[in-house]
Amino acid sequence: MMNWAKAALANVAGTSEPIYGPSAIQPVTKQAETTPYTELVRKDLQWANMDSTSVETQTFYLHADSGHISVAQIIHSNVAGIRQTSQFTLKVLYPRSENKPFLWSSDQLSNIDFNEDKTNFYADDVAVELSEDGKTYTIKSMVNQKSIVNITVTRTAPGFQVGNDGTSYFGTDPKAPWGSMRHRFWPRNTVEGSIMTKDGPIDFKGKALLSHALQGMKPHHAGAKWKFVDFQGPTYSAIMMEFTTPPSYGSTVVNVGGIVKDGEIITAGASHVAEHTKIKGDSENDWPEPEAVKYQWNGKTKDGKSITAVIDCPLDERLDRIDVMAEVPGFVKTIVAAAAGTKPYIYQYSPKSCQLKINVGDDEKSEEGQLFTEATFIVET
């Protein structure tokens, strides 16, 4: 979510919408009532490359065995069908024991292109390629000499989308939606390779999550706030993405996610819950910054067993608080100021110790893993 919000707000803005009500969104949760999820095939990994207002991202969340975390992202956006822009952004978070500030780079890309089936993304000094067997991505970037990326991400569990197509649709006429929000995931992968920094290479051998997202409308019209969860453990990976629409669409909550292990989706769907169980607040901007969280996954296995999984833990000190508007050009700030209540901030955390407790039927297990989570606030709900 991190850089998607930045790019979207930097590229498309506008005033608040009328109150259409909850009937003007057809959330993917409705699809999930009959089809909890579908496994991804190659065509689901194609870039849409829309010719209208949109922001499309491929985001790789990398969890190194060394404790380093990195977020590598392609952001491909279209402004009202007039101008396309693309960026490669990279964030590296160091283990707390190293007591080092995070590494951050964001670079505008030139000469954007895709391969014939639109599964590969190319730009000058950047390539994100899907292997012929559809199981491996390679991410290579030399666009910024302070952070040279050479990473391979290989799927170890099936990818999924919630419902039939992973998409929520916006508009008063369900047959002619004027906007959309889509998420597709590879939730569990291995990582090989390195990121070269001015201090030398960082070995990123470990685990990863891939999220391919497409937002086909103005960002603050679709999502007023977001919660994102990426847990990578020895046996299980647990992911969750939740957004709440602005009041114009009834402050509707849409939550998608799943639990997987190597070779298997244990459960996926839209019946999960993301709670901020303790709020400390942010005195600088009045947003309800969380201090503790509870994430719960609910569903059934393929053989019909009920499953619940829970992460319930304090967040520790935040990794970063991103003032989105501080990082966009002055003319964009002027435009976005017209969008009533728009003051986007992103809070990022990776608590030192979090457990995933999972119950499948009568079988109960728990394991510790690496959690990366975000809370994003864009407009009041």
TrEMBL record:
GO biological process per UniProt: response to oxidative stress
User: Looking at the keywords, is Coiled coil present?
Assistant: no
Instruction: Show where the Svf1-like N-terminal domain sits.
Output: 55-215
Coiled-coil-forming residues are none
The domain of life is Eukaryota
Subcellular location per UniProt equals: Cytoplasm
| GO cellular component annotations of the record | cytoplasm
Per UniProt, the keywords (alphabetical) are: Cytoplasm
Question: What region holds the Svf1-like C-terminal domain?
Answer: 217-378
Q: Which family does it belong to?
A: Belongs to the SVF1 family.
> What is the protein name given in its UniProt record?
Survival factor 1
Q: Which organism is it from?
A: Glarea lozoyensis (strain ATCC 20868 / MF5171)
